[in-house]
Amino acid sequence: MMRARAFSFDKRGSIMPMFGLALAATVGVVGAAVDYSRANAVKASFQSALDATVLQIAAKGPDLDQPALTALAQQVFDAQFKRYDAAPATINAVYSTTNGNQVTVSGSTTLDTKFMRIPGFGVNQIAIGGSVSAAWGNTRMRVALALDNTGSMADNDKMTALKTAAKNLIDQFKAAAKNDGDIYASIIPFAKDVNVGTGNKDAAWLKWSDWNSANGTCSKSQYHSQTSCQNHSGTWTAAGNTQWNGCVEDRDQSYDTTNEAPTSIATRFPAEQYSSCPVELMPLSYNWQALKDKIDAMQPAGNTNTTIGFEWAWHSLTQGDPLNPPAEDGHFNNKKVIIFLTDGMNTQNRWWTSSWNGDSNQQKIDARMTLACQNAKNAGITVYTVLVLDGNESLLKSCASSNDKFFKISSSGELNIVFQKIGGNLSTLHISQ
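Above: the chain's sequence. Below: its structure in token form.
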């Protein structure tokens, strides 16, 4: 007892106060570790709830104003965040199209400390917050419709059914596109040739040598081509290109099956005065009414050259000449699609005419189509093919990107159903990715 009393009155040291301070510091450090451990657990739960919230509400971004979107985010977050040791969270949600369609959800809460509030620390709360973004509809679609306009499309009400189905497809695209440029479509009517429009008569990518040889007047009026005129000592005067009706035929081989830029004579597109020239094509656009008007203007005439229709659909999706589509926004995943429809066999192109299925010319003509399809798919183009009643089923099936993208219909009335299915697939792809 005396030793203890003497110790307490000892003036030579302050052992007890020093021990007390050391103990307080130790408790504070340990307590801070506990509080920060709690805060990290709350932070992890908070971030997990933010992630779940943004995924659930992302698709609602274009349809709700900012207060409604925030209210929805708060509701979804509160159902996810079950940390009752934290204060009620404040959540905010914003929809933006600046770098693609996206929803950003952010929020904050606080956690009351248990140990760090002691003297010397004085920390009563720890702030916790976070933010997360999710893309919505970050895929933009560019869809080329290559549509058979040959004479056989007049049979069995096929052209009428095609117009209805194609216009309904355009309406599906319009409904799926929340913003201008989300979905573009081009219309490529084809027969033996494709009509690129007389407004392009001065385009550098056209080649006029064949046209000039076939269209003009001879000083000896009984001759109607440059060759026959000059062979009979006549003088040939080519017609001006203002008389051209807008049609082009296949490019020189092997450029007739590629999307090579027309930078040389061999890669340019030969003008032709084709008597069954289809209606002028329409490059990529989101002018929905103009696209439907173009479909309405289509008329059936001429023979079938599937390759040139497919090729110009591909050209309409390719940057630069000849059709110069709008520049692609790098903030988006830009998907390119060809929907190709025909009702018959390949019968004619620049080099060959086929008189019956299976002849040697038919095989050459189909080989060109096969190569064009493969080249486009290798370039990342998704290809849907639709065979109406008649035609080379194996060719169209092999042209499609996969078996589920090939459709064979046995009546004109099925066209609308098929186009609705394709449109639904593409709309879902646009919205969900």
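DSSP finds eleven helices and 15 strands in the chain.
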